[in-house]
Every structure is written in C-alpha cells, then in structure tokens.
Amino acid sequence: AVGYDYVLSIEHEDGLASIEEGLKKAITFLKEVMLEEPPAVPWWT
To answer: What is the pTM (predicted TM-score) of this model?
Structure first.
C-alpha cells in the first residue's frame, strides 16, 4: 500500500467484551492475516 509504515491500529468499541479480551482477540486475529514476506515482483510487468 502507498505510504504504509508498518503500524497497525486497533479500535475496540465492543461494550460486551472486556478491554483485555478484546485486545487479545484483535492481536490474535491480526497475527493470522498479516503478510510477512516482501511482495514478489509481478511476472506480468
């Protein structure tokens, strides 16, 4: 993405979950979907 600086922000506004549980679940989710490898060179360019 343009201008991406490797910082992720979590907003927790669920009144039914505790702050700690919401944060833990958000971190677990983000760890699963974050890309770790550098992008490949597009073969079509």
So the answer is: 0.64
